[in-house]
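Async update (no meeting this week)

Hi team, since we skipped the sync, here's where things stand on the single-chain job. The sequence we agreed to prioritize is pasted below, unchanged from the tracker. I ran it this morning and attached the output directly underneath so nobody has to dig for it. Comments welcome in thread, and please keep replies under the output.
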Amino acid sequence: MDYSYNYGYLQQFMDSHKLAKKDLLEALGCGDYVSLNKWLDGKVPVHVTAMLRFCNYYNIPLDGFFFDGDGMPAEIRPTLPDSNSQTLPVDGYGIKEGRGRGIVETRITERQISSQAQATVVAEGLARQSEQQHRRDEALMQLEQRTDAGRPLPEAEETSEKAADNTAGQQNLVETILRMQLEHANEMRATEREHHEREDRIRRDCQASFDAERNRLMDIIERQNAELSKFYQQGREQKEAMWIAADEPDHK
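Output:
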């Protein structure tokens, strides 16, 4: 084995599926664009819990983040955890009194769909998960058939067809749900945009009313100043006339 971390996988996945950074933040369980940019730029590896959540979110294999330089032979398989294996950390990730906020919960309970590309990738992942479950059920059924005295069950083919129909129905249901979520998100954005536009109109109307009232008051002040200037000028002229009359000699 010669394992290496694939620093370019996250960027390649985003580019190939035409996802936005906000889509990756939801899948990774991360709210920090600084960390995301470092992961995308290949400066640091993705945190293991964020990596697990990402793969669970899109239902993709974990091995895309890793590379085996030796090339592990197909017949060699790692030991899988069983029902007694510890799959969660002790004490719930140790999140107490605000500590451990950087730890990401890897299990996906619900997905926030923010774009059509996100909805498409999630639908593909859920369909892939359903297909994997179907294949697992078929493998278990075939194993039961082999252990049943070598006699195949007569309803095996019918069960397989029903499972395929069920898989297609589940995929259609998932796509419908994701489309409804996307439509709801678009409606929320449209409502928010309309609200902002209404605020802008009110703000512009208030500003226009304020400007009109200010201009009206400025005109009044300007007219009053002009009248005062005229009054002062007349007063000066009258005083000058009185001074001139007082300085003239009496010819009588």
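Quick observations from my side:
The radius of gyration is 38 Å.
Residues 15 and 50 are 19 Å apart (CA to CA).
Reply here if anything looks off.
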